Amino acid sequence: MNYDIRDIALAERGRKRIRWAARHMPVLNQLREEFAAQQPFQGKRLAVSLHITTETAVLLSTLHAGGAEIALCASNPLSTFDDVCAALVEEGMQVYAINGEDLPTYRRHVEQVLDIDPHLVMDDGADLIVELHKRSSSGSVVAGIEETTTGVVRTRALASDKLLRFPVIAVNDTPTKHYFDNRFGTGQNTIDGILRATNTLLAGSTFVVAGYGWCGRGIAARARGMGARVIVCEINPTRALEAYFEGFQVLPMEEAAPLGDIFVTATGMKGVIRKEHILQMKDGALLANSGHFNVEIDVAALEQTAVQTQEIRDHLVEYQLPNGRNVYLLGQGRLVGQVAAEASPAALMDLSFAGQALSTYYLLCTEHRLPPGVHNVPAELDERVAQLKLKALGIRLDTLNADQLTYQASWQYGTAE
Amino acid sequence: MNYDIRDIALAERGRKRIRWAARHMPVLNQLREEFAAQQPFQGKRLAVSLHITTETAVLLSTLHAGGAEIALCASNPLSTFDDVCAALVEEGMQVYAINGEDLPTYRRHVEQVLDIDPHLVMDDGADLIVELHKRSSSGSVVAGIEETTTGVVRTRALASDKLLRFPVIAVNDTPTKHYFDNRFGTGQNTIDGILRATNTLLAGSTFVVAGYGWCGRGIAARARGMGARVIVCEINPTRALEAYFEGFQVLPMEEAAPLGDIFVTATGMKGVIRKEHILQMKDGALLANSGHFNVEIDVAALEQTAVQTQEIRDHLVEYQLPNGRNVYLLGQGRLVGQVAAEASPAALMDLSFAGQALSTYYLLCTEHRLPPGVHNVPAELDERVAQLKLKALGIRLDTLNADQLTYQASWQYGTAE
Amino acid sequence: MNYDIRDIALAERGRKRIRWAARHMPVLNQLREEFAAQQPFQGKRLAVSLHITTETAVLLSTLHAGGAEIALCASNPLSTFDDVCAALVEEGMQVYAINGEDLPTYRRHVEQVLDIDPHLVMDDGADLIVELHKRSSSGSVVAGIEETTTGVVRTRALASDKLLRFPVIAVNDTPTKHYFDNRFGTGQNTIDGILRATNTLLAGSTFVVAGYGWCGRGIAARARGMGARVIVCEINPTRALEAYFEGFQVLPMEEAAPLGDIFVTATGMKGVIRKEHILQMKDGALLANSGHFNVEIDVAALEQTAVQTQEIRDHLVEYQLPNGRNVYLLGQGRLVGQVAAEASPAALMDLSFAGQALSTYYLLCTEHRLPPGVHNVPAELDERVAQLKLKALGIRLDTLNADQLTYQASWQYGTAE
Amino acid sequence: MNYDIRDIALAERGRKRIRWAARHMPVLNQLREEFAAQQPFQGKRLAVSLHITTETAVLLSTLHAGGAEIALCASNPLSTFDDVCAALVEEGMQVYAINGEDLPTYRRHVEQVLDIDPHLVMDDGADLIVELHKRSSSGSVVAGIEETTTGVVRTRALASDKLLRFPVIAVNDTPTKHYFDNRFGTGQNTIDGILRATNTLLAGSTFVVAGYGWCGRGIAARARGMGARVIVCEINPTRALEAYFEGFQVLPMEEAAPLGDIFVTATGMKGVIRKEHILQMKDGALLANSGHFNVEIDVAALEQTAVQTQEIRDHLVEYQLPNGRNVYLLGQGRLVGQVAAEASPAALMDLSFAGQALSTYYLLCTEHRLPPGVHNVPAELDERVAQLKLKALGIRLDTLNADQLTYQASWQYGTAE
């Protein structure tokens, strides 16, 4: 049996929820129609490691409708929806993922997915890509696609060590991903995850955001929009200045630690909140992470330091510190918007997943041949995604007339002419 | 057995969650200490109809710690947490409430609560007060407390018909309730309820808020803070002008209907969204209510009109209309922030419930005697609540010095003196 | 010659600017048409003390068109526009006001205005009312109208001393004034005044607002909207809590003083920023006032403390302190939005001045007789103003249908019916 | 006499105002100290065309203190402050600029500035660079610096025609300029210019921003912050989607034209608001431009179409259209924040001008040799500016520890390790 999931009987519930996501993904719907008609992926095998959500299901169905053979594992053991897995198996994919699976199972599933000898790997955190490079050969793989900042960092490191064997398109680095999914998606789902895990009041709270990249600024904007007073921690001078001019207080973590009611990390770095910070925090402080890996908050240090721990609610654990104060960790320090909420809304995943679908087509079905290395999404794909989305939203844009096109191209026009 | 709840075995889980709420209710915690020491409510019976949440539990424990005998039913059949009921029964209260109970059960529970022959009724929607006035006598009741706008309207109607038999303090009309719970609490929990029920993207959406009272403006502010474009519908000219100057588009519902992606009612009025509006809506429109009663959206008309309905997710039902479009009703048109999320955060309920606790003390344990009618919370109680909260938050205020107090009292100081 | 102004030759420029204001005052324009047709003020003399701006001119023209005889002085020596005075004289009013006039001249002008033996005094700060009560008789005066909080305080003090001889309508206390002029008008013109006086960057600045009444919250909202980080100082616990939940930092002035880049007072109280605060401020701090009187910042103490002062730009004076730091006072500590900018925009003055025009009509031309004391604007006048404004803006509202009107009046409808 | 200015007697006033700007430019102040000590520019001649404001004066003083010989003309005839010119002449520079000078004078001044045979040209709109390339030789010029988007476009066009003779550093394209001056500076000064020119109420207004680049998004954010309802017009799909997700309405100009109360262009394109749009506008619409050149609003078409025009206030002209409506043009369609207000605040010019000062040093005083073409500001200069600014603001950042630096460099760390 070429799948390993919780319960195939969950398929009906999964299908219903996938249809709900598909409602909000008009760009993928349109691509699906095109692919279904043309069957461009006939005979192509895809190994996929993604958060297994309803939106991911819409992406995979889109590729599957175009003829692709797909094997799927989870990019994070906690973000898998078992009902979605069941629906995808019934649709004909090989799925190896169970919510909450332990580490050995997780690793076995990664290997099972790679065992289909894929033509393309689609990754979210680069676990497939890294695993593949531990093997002596990449088999039929001609290209990869990577979704996250963290995975791109890992893939770049492989490339700079001259180990990377094939081209990888970094979907994460594309404007459509940066601008939309990271900012608006992570911004909303971080708030959502915190509310579901704690039902805490954001209005009036002091909300510390570590990292002012696209995710961090999305989180900061939404926290402010919910009435919080936001403090930003950064290491980059230009980003720190931006945060300052946006009206946020900018402090190093050691100064923010005793002030915050809620802390969220979104840096891509490890050890951003450490023991020395935690011991300075107020009684009742909440700690959450929105970066890809669960290394941004030093959970190990927190567990060693605590004199007592207890689960308070789903995704909320209380740690009693030696100083008598309690701090609360959300979702084990994993991506709070995916663990405690439902990841980015379908309307945004539509954009980045449409980029993935078009990149897959570009890599497998066109004449373009990229050398090994990390590549950007070709700009024309990105612009096509934006245009399809605007069309679906019913938004018309201005266009340049002949006079304006001439002006754009010329340099003779000056102050007074 | 003087209780009727789902399962007493849920008590441990309930206690744990109540402790989490209590962490965020420092004002009640302080009152609890005072009441526990003084036992002011010894021999007093309280009949209570409230949303049975963890925060309500903290209020009732505070009164119970002061010696009160308490019987409790739900003010809304869908907002009851069964684990909280169990914990309160174990603490020694009479609880008659089961999540999702049918109407006959609900009515029986109301009667059982009144059967303790209370000295005071504490109400949320005036169901106890109205039921009591259907009886020939109110027994030992000397006063009531009402929590919501809707309940106040109903009680005022009783009073203007000269039927009201005892004084009722309208906790709802007090600044601490208006300003904080309605605005910041309903604002947040409406967003929270919509996200949990749908995981829809708020950024970029067109979000229609019907009613620009305190709840409505809280919802509008938070929707904007999450990136939505907000349209306000109002019937009051002054409120409509306020919404306009706050930068919201102001339209009558018939013009807003074809524009909105999400609709939320918060008016206290029935039939705000009617069949003629629904038939104008876009495919995919979401309908939610944040007013007390489930009458603001005409659910009956929606059900009669729909050619097909199906549940998509928890608290989300799809209605296919004769025109081929689908609209989606959240939480059956009941309070979305209570049905699909967890009602107002504890930090805010701390304020209005502290007002209730102090009002209970005022009505049962002091010399003050109010005539039958609807009364405001005495201003000194309200100010005491605010002061206790600021103290708990560690916020110090400026105070007037002698010179300033003189200035405040005098009229001789003019432009140039 | 029954006027005393700078230069009658400025009339043409004044007329042009008044027309610009009139463009944005559609409610007054409509009233003007009605009054011109009906001549309700024939034979009535009005003594007026207002900020002499283009918007004031539109109000007075409206009353003058209705037959009133008008004498006018300034409510603040620095806010007079000499070109407006000239235009009003040419229109046929008696004007006694010169921008920057000294105190003896100011007082003489107040007296000259009262010398017309008015039927009604229209005041802004209560200087006319107070001066009148220093006289043995109020002559023909039957009523007064007062525009500001400060004037209302002074008039109430007169009333509570049982000295007030006639009814005074407090235009200031009406929703249309509170909600709109104080919040949106003062909010904008305070920002405008600061920018014109300093051209300082608001983004990223720490902006301290003393007072969180309607003016203060307007200022705080706009400062935040321009990118500032806002700190609020308050003495009232409920208002302080509101500011906190709106996401502002709340501090007493002594803690805010060393943090602020910009300080604005809007309290109605004297000595809000005192020597001890000023000596704690950062080098470069800006001090401005948006309260009616120039007593909120202790300018006398500032001048005594400074080792050197020099004017830097119009409305900006540098005070070098003994500690070597410099602080900067805007507009001499007078209303910064009126001294350094142009007071509230015409579109808002349209509302409060329409209230004044309708109140004048109510007091002089109807059967209503109010006793001596301070009275609110009758609610029906206020609502009429709001309706006229909405109509001018082209905004339609929802209205209740028969079913809803019944619902509003009844109390029988409960949870499940 | 090697200057041509309004009046040398204005120098004292100019110096005082320049000192006020210098207070807010701590980065330049620090560079000035370094340059004064090291005299790196001894023997170097600089031809400068910039908006002649107090901030420009601080930049030029900084270079002059380092030994540079400077000749200066205006980059826009209307933005010159004559008192600043006088102060700079007294400081020893050659200044050829008079506020409001006519076109022949403006051109003569450009030529006089180039006549010093400069080593470096510092430009704002590329008028010097273009003029130089009309000459047969560039003389001693080894490099240029260009400040604006428009100038960069013109210079790039020269380069792509293979005509550009020397390297030009595009200060405009650097993060410090984009992120800060364009967004926060233009954002604020556009609002400021509109308020000074009109005193119109922004709250509630419908505010149309054409162009959602860095300037446009700064303007949109500030307009929203002042209470306006903002509509964005764009031609780029990705930018349009961003505006949509930020909650702005996105429309083509032809649909926005009949809705707007205020229109601001910030596109770099000509003819953005044309006759066909103007004829659709509401009576009273305001038209302003914040792009570099006065071509974005078709002023010629406006003047030809109008049946009557008159100046209403400074920088505000009324155009009566054949349809009976009036529209109002601010500042002749030139940069409204520079014509009607005072350009970007010193605190921001500190950043871009520090970049210019460091680029000047880089081009004239180091070993680096760039080829002809348009170059970015070297990243290390930009980062140095940001660091100096943060230091001046007293803001400390987090820094990576050894463990984190290792993590940053490695790729072995995965999900579960």
UniProtKB/TrEMBL annotation, chains A, B, C, D:
One of its GO terms (biological process) is S-adenosylmethionine cycle. It is found in: Cytoplasm. Pfam families: AdoHcyase, AdoHcyase_NAD. NAD(+) binds at residues 148-150, 182, 211-218, 234, 290-292. Keywords: Cytoplasm, Hydrolase, NAD, One-carbon metabolism. Binds 1 NAD(+) per subunit. InterPro entries: Adenosylhomocyst_ase-like_sf (IPR042172), Adenosylhomocysteinase-like (IPR000043), Ado_hCys_hydrolase_NAD-bd (IPR015878), NAD(P)-bd_dom_sf (IPR036291), S-Ado-L-homoCys_hydrolase_CS (IPR020082). CDD domains: SAHH. Its EC number is 3.13.2.1. Residues 182-343 form the S-adenosyl-L-homocysteine hydrolase NAD binding domain. Substrate binds at T53, D124, E147, K177, D181. GO terms for molecular function: adenosylhomocysteinase activity. Coiled coil: none annotated. Belongs to the adenosylhomocysteinase family. This is Adenosylhomocysteinase. It comes from Thermosporothrix hazakensis.
